[in-house]
Structures are given as structure tokens and as C-alpha cells.
Amino acid sequence: MTTRSVFDVSLKNLQQDLLRMGALVEEQIEKGIQALSRQDAALADRVVANDDEIDRMQLEIEDRCMKLIAMQQPMAKDLRRISAAWRISIDLERMSDNIVDIAKAVRRLTREGGFKPMAIIPKMAQICQRMVKDGLDAYVYEDQELAIRMSEFDHQVDALYKEVLQELTATMLKDQHQITQSTHLLFVARHLERFGDHATNIAETVVYLVSGERKDLNE
């Protein structure tokens, strides 16, 4: 096998591992929101526990990226492919952290006797879940247009976050007994809003991978 062929196989393996990591993050957000909707502390515990595997995968991808750069000294788009995998793995790891924080909020809420469900938060989560999938598809197919379209969902997430903020603020002003519960739910919504920002970072990375140009899609 030629040196180039070995390098191509290494890049392919790196991409496959990144996609496996992304699939786990997709599962995490689905389970996290199920835990929230069902007020299921046991499921929230599993979400927290699963984060260790995602952390391990991110470090492994980071190590492999560094070795590829050191040993192959790639240039131009090859270098961008490696740096894209590295940056996306970091955003995926931080997205998983956001979900873990949501799961921890679910545990606190259930421990305090449960809470009134909100329809807006699962809607935010569904959009975030789609952003992860579209972002990874855009990365695999190096589809700049899909990446830009995906990033536009972040505006919907931001708008929904403002709705949650207004609704829960009004609830707290109306009934002080709801302050603790409303605060936990506000944190949940805030973590989803940040999740959307990290997904948008993936879109920016895809744009850089394809074009070599840096574009701020988080405006």
C-alpha cells in the first residue's frame, strides 16, 4: 500500500470514528429529553454515565489528529480535513456536556417532587437533534450549502429560548413557590441554546473545510 493510500485509510477511519461519536451525542440528546419529558431520574443517570465514553472518544480522536499532522505533515485540504475532525470532536464533546447538565437538572427536579412539563423545551431539543444530524451529513458529504441551511435553525432555537425565558420569568413573578423549579427549567433551556451554538460551530467548520474561508454563522 502506498503512503498516500495509508493516509487515505487513516482519514477514512478518523471520519468513521467521528461519526460514531456524533451518533452517541444524538442518542444522548434523545435520552436526555426523554428523561425530562418522563421525569425519569434513572434515565438521567444513564445519560450522565454515558458522557465518559464520549469524553474518551474525543481524546482518542484528538490524539490521532495530532499524530496524523506530525507524521504525514498534510497540506491544504488534507490539513483542513484533519483540523475539521478535531474541531468537530470538541464541539460534540461540549454538546454532550450540555446534555449531561440537562440530565443533572432532571435529577434535581425529580428529587424535589416533579415539575410541570413545558412544550417548548422538547421542541427546542428536536431542532437541536436535527442540527447534529444535518451538521454531520454536511461534514461527510462536504456540503457547504447544507451546513449553512442547518445553521439557520439556530435562530429558531434562540427564539424558542426567549419564549421559555419570558414564560418562566412570568411564572416566577406570579408564584414564588415556582422559583426553584422554573430556575432549573431555565438552565435546561439555556443548555439547549448553547447546544445549538455548538452545532452552528460544526457548520462553520464544514464551510472552512470546503472553501478554506472562515464564516461566522453564529451572528
TrEMBL record:
Plays a role in the regulation of phosphate uptake. The keyword Transport applies. The keyword Isomerase does not apply. Homodimer. This is Phosphate-specific transport system accessory protein PhoU. One of its GO terms (cellular component) is cytoplasm. GO terms for biological process: intracellular phosphate ion homeostasis; negative regulation of phosphate metabolic process; phosphate ion transport. PANTHER family: PHOSPHATE-SPECIFIC TRANSPORT SYSTEM ACCESSORY PROTEIN PHOU. Belongs to the PhoU family. The gene is phoU. Keywords: Cytoplasm, Phosphate transport, Transport. Residues 18-106, 121-206 form the PhoU domain. It is found in: Cytoplasm. SUPFAM superfamilies: PhoU-like. Signal peptide: none annotated. Its main location: cytoplasm. The lineage of its organism: Bacteria, Bacillati, Bacillota, Clostridia, Eubacteriales.
